[in-house]
Write a structure and sequence with these properties.
- Helix content is 43%, strand content 23%.
- By secondary structure, it is α+β, with helices and mostly antiparallel strands.
- It folds into 2 domains: 3-127, no CATH class; 140-251 and 292-363, 60s Ribosomal Protein L30, Chain: A, CATH 3.30.1330.
- The two termini are 52 Å apart.
């Protein structure tokens, strides 16, 4: 029989089939008995040269998993999570499901083909749950999965706040989902930022300058004489006056800047007048016209050697977790559906954002 001509297009509709006894394939692939559920199928498929291609709509009502069933072919997946993502507030799962198969295969069964397609879909969902959740609601799930923080900071940035709003809206429509919020930090990125902030805060304090409550000190203004003096004093106190003198001499004898890539020669260092040299000597400055590199080097070593409180990084992670939980609560997410996870270190390069990766689970 030439299937190309006999059944080029078929549309079959099945309504409210009892899933408890309808198909053994469900149990086999899922590894669960089905305690309750009705399935309706609108099957639209074509057969060309014995190759079946289907574009089907499957609606599952009130699907409830029962006890586990031992099966060597069962998917080793948290199917409860997939079902919680797919089920709407009415307990319905509505799927557009493409299927395909070779009808010449002696093992071919349409039921097996459909359940295999469902299994593939569930696998994609549980391996990338945020992507699946975002796709259902027209947002980027990959971005929603992680909330980025600036190094050393627990401040929720505006784009990340918007992500949480979208996540809160999705969670409101999927009431069987719970969210875990880790207290994550980066020893490299956050550690460097916290040490730099501590050094700059101490320098500002020594210079007699005032910061607003909660204000973080920015880059040092080496044009400010008080700040320059505070840097030198702090360096000498921590590493010794001899080390400070050594750095001054290194700055005064540093070679001129190398030629630029285009072959042009850098401008020669500005020569100081006798009076300028005397003034810098009295003030304790290196006798160079531009001392920015000198002060950057002092600050860099101060930061590298700055000690951190033992719990500083863990506390930062916990503060970030609390900020996320508070924002979601403000958006109407039930606190009982959110879980704060213990602090843990993550990899993030110095100067790069630190992502807190959220987790989804089923109740």
């Amino acid at each position: 029989m030439d299937l190309n001509h006999q059944i080029p297009n078929v549309n079959v509709v099945f309504k409210n089939i009892d899933m408890v006894s309808a198909s053994p394939y469900a149990m086999k692939f899922a590894g669960y008995r089905i305690a309750e559920g009705k399935i309706s199928l609108d099957l639209r498929y074509k057969v060309r040269a014995s190759q079946l291609e289907g574009d089907n709509q499957i609606v599952i009502d009130k699907l409830t998993l029962g006890e586990r069933v031992e099966s060597p072919d069962a998917l080793k997946l948290p199917l409860e999570l997939a079902i919680a993502i797919l089920k709407d507030s009415d307990g319905r799962i509505d799927l557009g499901l493409p299927v395909s198969g070779n009808m010449d295969d002696p093992q071919f069964s349409y039921g097996a083909v459909v359940w295999k397609a469902i299994g593939n879909l569930l696998t994609r969902i549980v391996t990338a749950p945020f992507r699946a959740l975002g796709k259902l609601f027209g947002v980027s799930g990959e971005k929603m999965e992680a909330i980025d923080f600036d190094p050393g900071s627990d401040r929720l940035l505006p784009p990340e706040r918007e992500k949480l709003k979208q996540l809160g809206q999705a969670l409101a429509k999927r009431t069987q989902l719970t969210l875990s919020v880790p207290a994550q930090y980066s020893e490299a990125a956050d550690g460097a930022a916290l040490r730099r902030r501590a050094v700059r805060s101490e320098i500002v304090k020594r210079a007699g300058l005032q910061l607003e409550p909660g204000e973080a000190p920015g880059p040092l203004d080496v044009g400010d004489r008080k700040l320059r003096g505070a840097v030198r004093d702090m360096y000498a106190e921590r590493f010794g006056a001899a080390e400070l003198d050594k750095e001054k001499k290194a700055a005064e004898t540093a070679p001129a800047e190398p030629a630029a890539p285009d072959g042009t020669t850098a401008a020669a260092p500005e020569k100081l007048s006798l009076w300028a040299r005397a003034g810098k000597l009295v003030q304790g400055e290196p006798q160079v016209a531009d001392a920015r590199a000198f002060y950057r080097k002092l600050e860099q070593r101060l930061v590298q050697q700055q000690a951190l409180a033992p719990e500083a990084l863990r506390a930062l992670g916990e503060q970030r977790s609390a900020v996320i939980l508070r924002a979601l609560k403000e958006d109407g997410v039930d606190p009982a559906r959110m879980l704060a996870v213990a602090p843990e270190a993550v990899d993030s390069a110095v100067g790069k954002p630190v992502p807190l990766k959220l987790g989804l689970a089923a109740k």
